[in-house]
Design brief:
Layout lengths: L8 H4 L8 E6 L4 H13 L4 E5 L7 H7 L3 H5 L2 E3 L2 H4 L5 E5 L10 E2 L1 H11 L5 E5 L8 H4 L4 E3 L12 H23 L14 H17 L11 H12 L3 H19 L13 H12 L1
Parallel strand pairs: 1-2, 1-6, 2-3, 4-6, 4-7, 5-7
Helix pairs in contact: 2-3, 2-8, 6-8, 9-11, 11-12
This protein binds S-adenosyl-L-homocysteine (SAH).
Length: about 280
């Protein structure tokens, strides 16, 4: 935890090392898109931005659109060619709004995220985004191992550059968090009490039914689905032994008070369920 007690990006998404994943923007013309892309990256826990020959950078428009992600802009590496940007990367994934003439290994955004996650520990990864007007050229696309396309409506297939960065970064973050959640021990493993056993549950249902009959809530000649519904309710909750003990205690006390309703007499203080049941049985016999 950091000093503000807020989790850091690494704590939020520990399954990914952001220093291994670069977002590369090629020849961007609008500085606002660079700022918006930086913001989208930081929203999703990423921070390595590489700008290939940007038309206008640094720029006030980029800073303004970056909001909380100005540090991503400040740390951005500016290079003049894509080759330079991806020189140290072992996995290069290019993005495209449309299929190109020469078919290339394609990934869906989810599969792209999975590949990034599985490979980033051993390979530096680059996700490459193209120009606003013409995307990536064929030569740039052929530098990439895979192409990824965000499925979009044919009536408007091309995403805004920063929206494309957001979708692919989101998929990476989502996948990283799911992987982490799958590793986590389920809540049940930390439960402080054992769950009530089947036998204890059966004793409880017998007891509950007896009390519901005694208080005339339940008519055994016309049971409808009451007991099934009670079983389904408690089955959903899977109560623990302590909770079971409390419920059985309540039922025993109800029985005691039914028995002694005219005497206004309390059961022996601190008596266990068994002791109350035993005392009631003795009185009944
Ligand atoms: N007319 C261009 C559109 C460029 S949009 C073209 O047809 O390629 C600018 C950049 O945003 C693209 O180069 C790509 O990096 C990204 N982008 C836009 N739409 C996308 C989509 N549907 N899938 C993946 N990336 C997309």
């Amino acid at each position: 935890m950091n000093t503000e007690n807020k989790p850091t990006a690494r704590e939020w998404m520990p399954a990914i090392d952001p220093s291994q994943v670069a977002i590369v923007l090629v020849n961007t013309s609008h500085p606002g898109n660079i700022g918006a892309a930086a913001r989208a990256m930081k929203n999703m826990g990423l921070n390595q931005l590489i700008l290939v020959d940007p038309e206008d950078f640094p720029s006030g428009a980029a800073t303004a659109r970056a909001a909380w992600a100005v540090d991503v802009l400040e740390n951005a590496r500016v290079v003049s060619t894509l080759e330079e940007a991806v020189a140290d990367c072992g996995l290069i994934i290019g993005t495209s709004a449309r299929s190109r003439k020469l078919p290339w290994p394609m990934l869906e955004p989810e599969a792209c995220a999975e590949r990034v996650l599985h490979e980033h520990a051993t390979n530096k990864v680059a996700l490459v985004f193209g120009r606003e007007d013409s995307g990536l050229n064929n030569e740039e696309l052929q530098l990439c191992h895979y192409h990824v396309q965000v499925p979009t409506s044919p009536e408007c297939p091309s995403l805004n550059l920063s929206a494309a960065v957001m979708v692919l970064s989101y998929e990476i973050a989502k996948r990283a968090r799911l992987d982490e959640a799958a590793k986590a021990v389920p809540e049940d493993h930390f439960w402080d009490q054992e769950r009530a056993s089947a036998e204890e549950n059966e004793r409880f249902f017998t007891h509950l039914e007896r009390v519901m009959i005694a208080i005339r809530f339940h008519d055994p000649d016309n049971p409808r689905q009451l007991m099934q519904r009670m079983r389904r309710l408690f089955g959903r909750i899977r109560i623990d032994v302590m909770e079971m003990n409390i419920l059985r205690g309540i039922l025993s006390n109800i029985e005691w008070h039914i028995k002694h309703r005219d005497e206004r007499k309390d059961p022996p203080r601190g008596a266990t369920i068994e002791q109350i049941e035993e005392a009631l049985e003795k009185e009944n016999s």
